[in-house]
Amino acid sequence: MHNMEGTTVICVKRNGHTAMAGDGQVTLGAQVVKMTARKVRRIGGKGRGDAIAGFAGSTADAMTLLERFEKQLDEHHGNLLRASGALMKDWRTDKYLRRLEAMMIVADKNDVFMLSGAGDMLEPENGVAAIGSGGMFAQAAALAMLDNTDLPSGVIARKSIEIASRICIYTNDSIILEEIG
Fold first, then answer.
1. Of these residues, 7, 8, 18, 171, which one is catalytic?
2. Is 149 marked active-site?
3. Three-state secondary structure call for residue 54
């Protein structure tokens, strides 16, 4: 999986609770064009909101994939694993979708998956998934907090983005947080 530049999204799962956070910065080259973008959203069939998704990459491409994923989630009655697999199949085989440049993290109360146009559908072993240019900074911070504190997943996700924003020039501290569980 290659890293997308210009965003940071992290998902943290702990004690049956899942939290996903994303920063709000949008850049065009070296210029910040927006500071309050919403890269993490609650989704789920027919307005249930029983899943969350975060994305990195081209905004138009990510929104297209988010719509497709939500449709798959509806068709598979909220089953995140089956919906993710169906999206990956479409993403790799559809001529139009194959050209989309984005990555996603999708999660519900049970599962977390990282999805990419390279055909990757990865489930993190440690309950932490991160994408974007600041993703590895946020992931390192989250893993340290998981190993050394009893903080809840929402606090860890938020603090991880805050730490990444101090290191990554493509990440800010305008944070959107969604939680399930």
1. 7
2. no
3. strand
In-domain check, residue 3: no
The number of distinct structural domains making up the chain is: 1
**DSSP letter (8 states) at residue 4:** P
Helices (H), the chain: 59-75, 80-93, 135-148, 153-167
In this structure, the chain runs to a length of 181
Tens digit of each residue's pLDDT (9 = 90 or more) over 12-58: 999 999 999 999 998 887 888 889 999 999 997 555 678 999 998 87
Strands laid side by side in the 8-14 sheet = 128-132, 8-14, 17-22, 176-180
Structural domain containing residue 175: 8-180
Residue 44 tokens read as 């789920």
pTM of the model: 0.91
In the 3-class helix/strand/coil scheme, how is 128-175 assigned residue by residue?
A: EEEEECCHHHHHHHHHHHHHHCCCCHHHHHHHHHHHHHHHCCCCCCCC
Q: Is residue 36 part of a domain?
A: yes
Cα 30 to Cα 5, 108, 120, 131: the distances in Å are 11, 35, 29, 20
